[in-house]
Amino acid sequence: MKNKILSSSTMQTQFPSTILLLLLILTTYHFIPSLSQICNPNDKNALLQIKKQLGNPSQLSSWDPTTDCCNTTWQGASCDTFTPTYRITDLDLSDLQLSQPYPIPPSITNLPALTLLSLANIPNLVGPIPPSIVNLTILRYLTIRNTNISGEIPGILSQIKTLVTITFTNNKLTGPLPASLSSLPVLGGISFDSNQLTGAIPESYGSFSKTLFTGLTLSRNKLSGKIPASLANLNLAFLDLSRNALEGDASVFFGSKKETQQIVLGNNKFGFDFGKVGLSKNLEKLDLRNNKIYGTLPEGLTALKFLHKLNVSSNNLCGQIPSLRFDETSYAHNKCLCGSPLPPCKT
Ligand SMILES: *[C@@H]1O[C@H](CO)[C@@H](O)[C@H](O)[C@H]1NC(C)=O
Ligand SMILES: *[C@@H]1O[C@H](CO)[C@@H](O)[C@H](O)[C@H]1NC(C)=O
Ligand SMILES: *[C@@H]1O[C@H](CO)[C@@H](O)[C@H](O)[C@H]1NC(C)=O
Ligand SMILES: *[C@@H]1O[C@H](CO)[C@@H](O)[C@H](O)[C@H]1NC(C)=O
């Protein structure tokens, strides 16, 4: 193409400009794919297979083989029109009403340029996460949320080195947390809440990137065992381990030098001295309800500018409540917390 344009311009002196213009139009027209053809044919084929493998749900009626799959009319599918490679980079399938239970469509792994895959609010999506998902080698954002996907979280996910977030909220996943995920170099967070995961938090999770890994959400599972001391290395913005059967020293998540905004540990069996923890200046939410946490409330609580939610009820805490603006349900059912809004301390 370069050569043709060059030769056109060298001819500029010999031809009238109208002929030159015609030549340019003819040569360039030849090299710009017609708009109806820009979608990569392999990607188009994979999408049509996916539709078939889901039983042709009506929500995907816009996936029409006679139209271009890079046309924004293909619901949930987006092409790279910026670089442009015209490959399918994002596949966001949500709210599909499937006529019967279907597994994750095998042809999803035939979309090698995917950087975002989201399968959300699909009650009839069943079966395991297929190991072939590792063929999506540049995937960054993986979401499977509100489905009936079951089986274990494949440890093989650690082969997708580009993963930034893994969100598996509210499915039927069972088995352990894969220790291998800690080897993902740019992982920013995992949300595995509301599944049936068992076992302990792996020691290896202490080696998640201190700068990049900021979100750990594992609430509403059946996790048990002690918090590994290695997790003290993390600098999380958001932590939610609530509603499990975890125990031991969760003070490793606290620290005055951390940038933590939310610590939610409620409804576990944690036991540690709350009076000795350091508090992040950014703390907005601290929910420790229903544990075996002892000691006093830390002095530093009163200095937290952003704290708008505190619940330390049903623990073994003692001592005077510092001057804060929370109601008595935030403090109720402790061993001997006292002072406003609870009854005054005995002297
Ligand atoms: C996109 O699809 C619409 C409706 O099918 C059509 O009118 C339009 O020409 C298409 N655009 C491209 C770029 O293919
Ligand atoms: C799982 O399937 C059951 C029965 O079809 C359905 O009621 C439930 O909503 C599904 N769960 C999710 C999270 O979609
Ligand atoms: C990835 O794809 C290749 C070829 O499409 C296939 O042979 C291989 O088994 C796949 N990998 C996995 C882990 O399924
Ligand atoms: C604190 O948690 C208890 C349950 O232990 C709940 O009853 C109460 O409403 C909560 N209070 C606040 C302010 O969140």
TrEMBL record:
Coiled coil: none annotated. Keywords: Glycoprotein, Leucine-rich repeat, Membrane, Repeat, Signal. Pfam families: LRR_1 (PF00560), LRR_4 (PF12799), LRRNT_2 (PF08263). The keyword Nucleotidyltransferase does not apply. Residues 41-80 form the Leucine-rich repeat-containing N-terminal plant-type domain. It is found in: Membrane. The keyword Signal applies. InterPro entries: DNA_repair-toleration, Leu-rich_rpt, Leu-rich_rpt_4, LRR_dom_sf, LRR_N_plant-typ. GO terms for cellular component: membrane. PANTHER family: DNA DAMAGE-REPAIR/TOLERATION PROTEIN DRT100, L DOMAIN-LIKE PROTEIN. This is Polygalacturonase inhibitor 2-like. The gene is LOC101505245.
